[in-house]
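re: ur question from yesterday

yeah so i grabbed the chain u mentioned. its 307 aa long if i counted rite. heres the sequnce exactly as i have it in my notes:
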Amino acid sequence: MQRRKRKRKGFRLSWFKTKKKTTRWKGTPNFWAVLTIFIFPITLLVTDWLGFEHLWPFIISLIASITILAIEIMVRGRIWIFEDEYIEYFHHTETPKRIFLIAAGSLLILETALILVVTLDRRFDDALLALVHKKECALVQNEEAQAMCRFLQGENIIKDGTVDQIPATKKDSSGFALRQYAGEQWFENEPLVTCAERKIDEEFIDSTSEQQANIMTCTSWKLNDDQKLQVKATRTAFTGALLSRANDGLYRVLSWSDDPNSKEWAVALGGISTRARRRAASIGVLEELRTILYAESLGRAQEQIEK
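ran it thru and got these C-alpha cells back, copy pasting raw so excuse formatting
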C-alpha cells in the first residue's frame, strides 16, 4: 500500500496557540517579512538622525528587528521565514544568485546617488563637517587635528598651538594690513569697504617678515535713505600674502594673491604655498564661516558709521 504523503506544515510555536479561534487580522507572511526587513535600516537612520553615537544605532536597530519577530510570534504563533513558500524560495538553486544581483544593483544605485548628492548639494557640507568635527575632535591625536578642530569652532590658532583670545576687532596689525589691502584690491575707489579673515596657515621668515594664508571676506556697503547699511557687493576667497613689519610696528603687504593656483600665490607664500593650497582645498568656503566673517565685516562697518 502506498503511503499517503503528509503535507508539510509551517513552523509553529505551540505554546502560543489558543483554543478559541479569533477573527482579528494577524497579517500575512509577506507583511511580516517586509516589516522585518525594513525595520532595521529605518531604525538605523532615525537613531542616527536623533543623535545616537557609536554602536547605539546598530544595537537599537537590531533590538527593533528582534522585537518585530517576537510580536509576530505572539500574534501569529509562527515566524514568516518558516512558512512553506519561503522554505521553497530559499531552497531554490537560483535564490542566492538573485539575492546577490538585486542587492548589488540596489547598493550601486544608492551609492551613486549618495555620491552625486554629497558632491553637488552644498546643504550636505555642514553635515560632513559635523561628522569630521565629531570624529576627529573626540580623539585629538596630533597638532593638525587640534588646529582643525579649533578652526571649525571659529577660534584663531597662534603658532604655538594655543588659542588666540584676542577679539576680532582688536587683531594685530598684520590682520589690519591684510584687510585693508584686500578691500583696495577687490573694491577700488569704493567709499566704505570692510573685511574679515581667518588664518589657515602661517610661517615666520624672521622677526619682521611673515607669510600668511587666510580665508577673506570683504563687503562694499552703501547707506539707504534710513541711514542703514546695505550690501553693494561682497566677495570671499582664500588669500596668500607676504608681509613685512616697518619701524613703526605696522605691517606692509609686499606680495599678495587671491588665487591658490596662480604663480603669485607661490611667490607670496614661498615654501608653504603647496601646504596652504592643500588646506584651502580641503577646507573649502564653509557657509557657517562665511556668515561669521560677514557678521564681523558688518560690525566694522557699523563702527565706522558711528564714528
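noticed a couple things. Residues 13-23, 159-171 have pLDDT under 50 and may be disordered. also Residues 42 and 242 are 53 Å apart (CA to CA).
anyway ttyl
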